[in-house]
Amino acid sequence: MNITLFGSTGSVGQLVIKQALELGHTITAFTRNPDKLTQPHTNLHPFKGDVQDYNAVLESIKDQDAVICTLGMPLLNKDKLRSKGTQNIVQAMHETNVDRLICLSSMGVGDSHQLLPAKYKYLIAPLFMRRLFADHSLQEQYIKNSNLNWTVVRPGSFTKKDFTSPFMHGFTKHDPKAKANISRPDVASFLLKQLTDNTYLNQSPAISY
């Protein structure tokens, strides 16, 4: 497939690129800093742009089969880059008739808040993740109000592990066995799996060990 990836130089985005290329996909990697793309490949096409520049976003999405969004920002950042950028992405997808969007969010957003262990729900989230959740919540709102075929993926906190299989996905009630964390390679793999699996079409699955 031909895929435009936003957030391509982030920790998950770089793994999405690596795994997508191994699967034979062609990636248009949207980034402000193409020099950070350190894995040259004939199917990797850097696209220099700012996600807040609508015309650049529009141009990068033309003639693609799908879009994957892994936009990220520092935990306490106030710029709302995820939601603002995603608003541009959704609008550009409508304009170009590209309708498959897979977006990285976070466990704890929306109705997945109930899935968090107590220490996250009552301590870590209110003190340190309030802005992150608010930005993701607005991001998800733009996506769910669209006419796109979307999947929003809500992982637990990231670990430094490599692939670890199996893991839980799509659970809707708090499970004491759920660790509320998962490795970045597993997250990237799950994002890419959604390209060919409609199990979670127009849904927001949480994923966790």
Describe the protein in words.
The protein has 209 residues and is α/β, with parallel strands linked by helices. The chain has six helices and ten strands, in the order βαββαβαβααββββαβ. The chain has helices at 11-22, 54-61, 81-96, 118-128, 130-144, 184-193; strands spanning 2-6, 26-31, 44-48, 66-69, 100-104, 149-155, 157-159, 168-169, 181-183, 206-208. β4 (66-69), α3 and β5 (100-104) form a beta-alpha-beta unit. The longest helix has 16 residues, at 81-96. The protein is globular, with a radius of gyration of 16 Å. The chain starts with a strand and ends with a strand.
Would you spell out the secondary-structure blueprint of this structure?
Elements lengths: L1 E5 L4 H12 L3 E6 L12 E5 L5 H8 L4 E4 L11 H16 L3 E5 L13 H11 L1 H15 L4 E7 L1 E3 L8 E2 L11 E3 H10 L12 E3 L1
Alpha-beta classification: alpha/beta
Our measurement of the CA-to-CA distance between the termini, rounded to an integer number of angstroms, reads 29 Å
Integer average pLDDT: 91
In which range does the helix fraction lie?
A: 25-40%
DSSP helical segment count: 6
Largest sheet: 8 strands, mixed
Strands side by side in the biggest sheet: 3-2-1-4-5-6-10-8
The portion of residues forming beta strands comes to 15-25%
The count of β-strands is: 10
The low-confidence parts are: none
Q: Mind telling me the C-alpha Rg?
A: 16 Å
Along the chain, the helix and strand elements come as EHEEHEHEHHEEEEHE
Shape: globular
